[in-house]
Design goal:
Helix content is 24%, strand content 31%. The chain is built from 6 helices and 13 strands. 43% of the residues are buried.
Length: 203
């Protein structure tokens, strides 16, 4: 399908590396904070690095939260890292804060005895099938950097798990909304396949 993938610029996130990964795959991207450009895009990326409440406030201030929810009724949306966490109902980092609420659950510190933040490569298992992981086998390795994770989720919305002293939600899906706690743009060939799969969702 012709058209561009919009990467939302709301003052947080690793925008260039995500854009570069898609361009490597031959996909046109636009980094934008304009709701009108989200309307014209064929798919949307919600990136994010930082604290949940700051990111939520920055998304809401210009009305991008409403735009994301509206566009997600018609086209695929992928949240990456903090962007995935914002898809959930609430966050508990720094202070309680509402998320976009398209995925059930809350975002809280990983209840592990292992060192936080969780940084590095970990393997995935797939409790539910998803087109996001088409062509990938369980056990593939992806790159994580996080201290908080999705918890109290709907098991039916969890499409990937990893292990960090306990099972940790690594990816979610609800309708057209997808989320990866890990960074596909930093996960080598596996990550590129995930981004390729996402770009193909509405071909």
């Amino acid at each position: 399908m012709k058209g561009y993938i919009a990467i939302i610029d709301y003052g947080v996130g690793n925008l260039k590396s995500v854009s570069n990964a898609f361009r490597y795959l031959g996909q046109e991207t636009r980094i934008t904070g304009d709701p009108a450009e989200l309307e014209r895009a064929r798919a949307i990326i919600l990136p994010g690095v930082g604290a949940f409440p700051d990111a939520a406030d920055r998304l809401r201030a210009p009305g991008l939260d409403r735009a994301v929810l509206e566009q997600g009724k018609r086209k695929p949306v992928l949240g990456i890292c903090l962007g995935m966490q914002l898809l959930l109902e609430t966050g508990e980092e720094v202070r309680p804060c509402a998320g976009l609420g398209v995925v059930k659950g809350r975002v809280a510190r990983i209840p592990t005895s292992l060192k936080l933040p969780h940084i590095g490569w970990n393997s995935l298992v797939f409790p539910n099938p998803s087109p996001l992981f088409q062509g990938l086998d369980e056990g593939v390795m992806v790159y994580f950097v996080h201290s908080f994770s999705a918890q109290d989720t709907d098991p039916g919305q969890v499409i990937a798990l990893t292990d960090y002293g306990l099972p940790v939600t690594a990816a979610v899906q609800s309708g057209n909304f997808f989320g990866c706690q890990f960074h596909p743009e930093k996960s080598g060939e596996v990550g590129l396949q995930i981004l390729r799969n996402f770009a193909a969702l509405n071909d």
